[in-house]
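Hi W., the fe (ii) ion complex you wanted:
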Amino acid sequence: MGKEGTKVAAVNVKELIKDLNRVYADEWLAHYSYLYMARTCTGMMYEDMGEFLEEIAKDEAEHAGELADRIQELGGLPLAIFSDLEKQCNAPYPKPPKSTSDYKGMIKVVMDAEAGAIDAYNKIAEKTKGKDHVTYQLVCHILGEEVGHEEKFEDLLG
Ligand SMILES: [Fe+2]
Ligand SMILES: [Fe+2]
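Structure:
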């Protein structure tokens, strides 16, 4: 980010970059897990389930991209080492259930990950509100999509 851009963002930039990298890691872990489940799921509903999971997996990759852009605007760099994603995340890897036809298990994995994401973005929104409008706007946009993901899967529970 340019000098003026950094000055007007009245937040601890170093700390903010760390926070953003943590959600960046969460996004990649969710992306991998969701896409894995999309590609391996079996059973009666495998087509619908696969489609649902692939759709939100794509959203999570998009979120990671948006976060990477913002981290660099702030003068930082997104995590470069793959294994760091699991070390510097907010929540552990959303581990797919053992059975590839365990829809309830998959829904739970997604719901837990989404709840964690909602919490994490809420915290960053609180921190940046009225201080760093650009980051605030971005995290609110992502937060809205995470709420949508949670709702979509909640509906699947019937
Ligand atoms: Fe996301
Ligand atoms: Fe999500």
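The mean pLDDT is 94.

W.
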